[in-house]
């Protein structure tokens, strides 16, 4: 545990020094993202996902064509075609599962850096939030999810920086080839255009969730409710999560309330800036960041209410939502950072507590940290 805690303390110390500095720190931030990507990529027999992904890699036959090998693979879990192709060609070229982990970890970290670099504000703050919520889950747990999230971030970058909608859609489609749950990210993206006002977005999310929650407690089947708005395969997949056995605690609900509070925080800051007519804060890509961050946060909170006993589902959304939230919040740095000092400190402290709690919960798979060397 000392390795992880000491590393995080160093990051937290750097963040504390730079938290209210009005500077980009792009070279330093890039170096930190690369470091995190390498730490997550050179692990060996470490992490919650190692056994199943190592076994899957070994189960792939390179004696057949990619299509034949994919169709004949009889591994106990069915992984997406994009992830299979990545494993197939790495194995064909003589690589090992370690190369898959390294590519996935570095790719996710660098795509997050690329997205964060398109926004004004303190990039160290975004990095700290990213590490706090995603270091364990993106770099030591969900390989396919990390690649899918990276492709989604890359798609957002293409949309915001390059204004290239075709490339964005292509990257979104590729993300679904690595993890089907990335369709939730695409859903979030398009939902963010439905509401011009953040508070209106929060209101309709809250209303919809309340009605759904009330319907369930009145005896309606959650599967039937989901099937009425989603294609049957997706509804069935969601219902699989409901049957998974995880320990339920009050902390889950409290964290759900915190996530909803983050969305309200963004709405309050945006309204305050608009009221005082601060230019460049709630316009253009900053406005889009506020909307998509709010939408993703509200969906995360909704999934916690519907599937509180399973963190695997709602963390898939929150891992992305946390980055979008940090990007949106960072847009307020170049106005009056000292005025909102307590807000930024509070979110950073909560993120730090979450990191420590997640680390201790996963310590059996994380300790000791072993590398390929």
TrEMBL record:
| Positions of transmembrane segments | 6-21, 28-44, 88-115, 136-160, 172-195, 202-226, 246-268, 288-307, 313-335, 342-362
Q: Keyword annotations for this protein?
A: Membrane, Transmembrane, Transmembrane helix
UniProt keyword Membrane present: yes
* Signal peptide bounds: none
Name used for this protein in its record = EpsG family protein
| UniProt-listed InterPro entries | EpsG-like
């Amino acid at each position: 545990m000392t390795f992880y805690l000491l590393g995080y303390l160093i990051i937290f110390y750097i963040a504390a020094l730079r938290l209210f500095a009005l500077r980009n720190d792009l070279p330093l931030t890039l170096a930190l993202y690369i470091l995190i990507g390498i730490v997550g990529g050179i692990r060996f027999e470490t992490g919650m996902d190692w056994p199943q992904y190592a076994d899957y890699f070994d189960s792939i036959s390179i004696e057949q064509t990619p299509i034949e090998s994919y169709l004949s693979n009889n591994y106990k879990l069915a992984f997406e075609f994009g992830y299979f192709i990545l494993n197939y060609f790495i194995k064909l070229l003589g690589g090992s599962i370690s190369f898959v982990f390294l590519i996935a970890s570095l790719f996710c970290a660098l795509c997050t850096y690329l997205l964060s670099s398109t926004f004004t504000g303190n990039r160290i703050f975004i990095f700290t939030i990213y590490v706090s919520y995603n270091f364990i889950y993106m770099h030591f747990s969900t390989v396919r999810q990390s690649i899918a999230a990276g492709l989604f971030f890359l798609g957002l970058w293409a949309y915001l920086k390059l204004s290239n909608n075709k490339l964005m859609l292509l990257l979104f489609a590729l993300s679904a080839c690595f993890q089907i749950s990335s369709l939730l990210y695409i859903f979030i993206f398009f939902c963010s255009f439905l509401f011009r006002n953040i508070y209106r977005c929060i209101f309709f999310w809250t209303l919809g969730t309340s009605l759904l929650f009330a319907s369930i407690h009145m005896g309606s089947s959650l599967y039937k409710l989901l099937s009425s708005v989603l294609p049957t395969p997706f509804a069935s997949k969601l219902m699989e999560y409901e049957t998974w056995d995880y320990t339920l605690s009050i902390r889950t609900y409290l964290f759900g309330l915190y996530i909803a509070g983050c969305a309200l925080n963004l709405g309050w800051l945006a309204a305050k800036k608009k009221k005082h007519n601060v230019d460049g804060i709630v316009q253009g890509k900053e406005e889009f960041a506020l909307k998509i961050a709010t939408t993703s946060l509200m969906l995360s909170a909704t999934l916690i209410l519907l599937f509180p006993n399973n963190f695997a589902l709602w963390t898939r959304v929150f891992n992305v939502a946390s980055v979008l939230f940090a990007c949106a919040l960072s847009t307020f740095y170049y106005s009056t950072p000292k005025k909102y000092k307590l807000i930024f400190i509070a979110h950073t402290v909560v993120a730090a507590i979450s990191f420590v709690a997640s680390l201790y919960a996963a310590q059996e798979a994380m300790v000791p940290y072993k590398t390929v060397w």
